[in-house]
UniProtKB/TrEMBL annotation:
Protein name per the record: Amino acid ABC transporter substrate-binding protein
Family designation: Belongs to the bacterial solute-binding protein 3 family.
SMART domains xrefs: PBPb
One of the record's GO cellular component terms: extracellular region
Amino acid sequence: MIRRHSSKLVLAATSLALFQMPAAQAASPTLDKIKEVGKISLGYREASIPFAYLGSDQKPTGLSLDLCSAVADKIRIALRRPELGIDYVPVNASNRIPLLQNGTIDVECGSTTNTAERQKQVAFSVATYVASPRWLVSAASGVTEPKGLDGQTVVITQGSLNFAVAKKVIDDQKLNVMIVQAKDHAESLLMLETGRATAWFEDDILIAGLVANASNPKAFRMLVASYAPSYYGLMIRRDDPEFKALVDAAIKEKMASGAFDKLYAKWFEAPIPPKGQNLQLPMSEAMKARVASPSDALTP
């Protein structure tokens, strides 16, 4: 009996070693690049609360940064280089893909939506969040539904995928609106706050994050109408399946162990820096489904 038990332990240890070996031996251009330069470069957004933003100490923080930290640990194991440091690089909606493609960053740790069009340029991890775009208006506004935006000015963040979604909504409902674009989400909210725009169209969670940390969160409200879900993921270079497998493995392990649920609660159901606001957004059924069965699919 003792001998049989020992054999099982040896087999388990051997299986674990074999599981880890392919990552170290795989022909991954990204891993080769990281090994050559001696550091891991992570791109982060500066105002995408709670996924990636600058905390009160001016250091990047958020759910996506926590997940990227797990990815960095996987990279160190794969390359057998525990000393590898991390270089944090700020990115925005306009330059995040070019900076990934030219090798400035190895992983984009933000709130980027996985789409078929973007997959022609980059690759994505399994979904890390399921979002739905909505309209945000001033609480004092009389607008209660999208039709109330007729004849108004609306703002959309430059480079946001939701520009096309908003345009379709506007066209489908035959709304006569003027669309203006802001350089980032913070400016979009400011335009709404100062009355330069009547509504802002963006993913619900990104809106909730900025509103929670605004000087007066009660000054805003979301319209009830929501639209097709979209799936966020960590963004990586195309044509590097070995590296994608490593990134996916880091996230899947968090989801399987229950650690992802704790990270979600940390960022969506508890006070977060810098102002201690609680987004109070429990995990949706769509997100629970992706945690139970991780996937990078573009449909439910």
